[in-house]
Amino acid sequence: MKERIFLSSPHMSDEGYEMQYVKEAFDTNWIAPLGENVNGFERELAEKVGSKAAAALSSGTAAIHLALKAVGVGEGDIVFCPTLTFSATANPIIYQNAIPVFIDSDYETWNMSPKALEEAFEKYPAVKAVIVVHLYGLSADMGKIMEICKKHNVAVIEDAAESLGTYYKGKHTGTFGDYGIFSFNGNKIITTSGGGMLVSNNEERIAKARFWATQSRDQARHYQHSELGFNYRMSNVVAGIGRGQLKVLDQRVKKKRYIFEFYKRELGGLEGIKFMPSNEWDDPNYWLSSITLSGEVRPLDIFDALETENIESRPVWKPMHMQPFFEKYDFVGTDVSEKLFENGVCLPSDTKMTDADLERVVETIKSLFK
């Protein structure tokens, strides 16, 4: 059996930055959901993306949940959400007993279509929040989207789980809306094994999110709780991994870009292959290099051929409005997201891949076109 090539797996620094911070947590006995690593990770991540405040949490999903709570989303409220995303974007809407309305993508960005968003506002003028996703590290068209949302005076939450290190017109994704969220799951561009971050320029609301995330424990000698709380704070050990990983983020983005350009150079001339879009205002982190197919070779052919060579690949996300749990909720748009799902392939984009690994992937795919 040939060595496994993964889609996107954890990649610790060669310098061992992560272990330095983890060792410090052990040496000081701060094995808890508080400590210098938690404080430092919040501070350093906020500085990196240009946000005033951050709260380190147990997952990106927890961050979306608290962002929805922070903007006042509650029972019966409508929240617009891209349909082409992972379910973790939509699940917290249900946690708040709110109602998701799914918005189609466009081919120009693979992200939320501004045109479909406008149509959704015409249909549902009383909207509490809009969640925007930056899919696979590609920035949504934040200029148009923010203009529409400001016109309708609605809160914006950016799901930048996949786009840490991506810029829109020179500014980090996750910092345009009222709140931004990042994920450090094991497959993300930097990882803490599991964890997330909520960022905002509203320091008071971030402090409130930290309060909710620590079981809403009031400042009292005894245990007192005046609000519903959650067990969402990040561990000091996990935060230490994050501090170390943050030091190599730029290296990881550089390698992801190298992988994308390699695939584009080697596969771009094959009939029916089209790469995920690039725009002049978008500087992606290329978290996953993704393609669509329009010829005789179909996604399943590529999945099977790669798996035979012990190489991992994945379909593009199945749209939320096509999911059994969410299909009862409304969808606004055409069939763009469905076509991207039907024709899309996410190629292995692991930052530990060598040129020989990339050649294995490329030659396996090329063999299908001969």
From TrEMBL:
InterPro entries from the UniProt entry: DegT/StrS_aminotransferase (IPR000653), PyrdxlP-dep_Trfase (IPR015424), PyrdxlP-dep_Trfase_major (IPR015421), PyrdxlP-dep_Trfase_small (IPR015422)
GO BP annotations listed: polysaccharide biosynthetic process
SUPFAM superfamilies named in the record: PLP-dependent transferases (SSF53383)
The family this protein is said to belong to: Belongs to the DegT/DnrJ/EryC1 family.
Catalytic site positions: 188
Protein name: Aminotransferase class I/II-fold pyridoxal phosphate-dependent enzyme
Cofactors required: pyridoxal 5'-phosphate
Residues with the N6-(pyridoxal phosphate)lysine modification: 188
GO molecular function: pyridoxal phosphate binding; transaminase activity
Keywords noted in UniProt: Aminotransferase, Pyridoxal phosphate, Transferase
Species of provenance: Mangrovibacillus cuniculi
Source species, domain of life: Bacteria
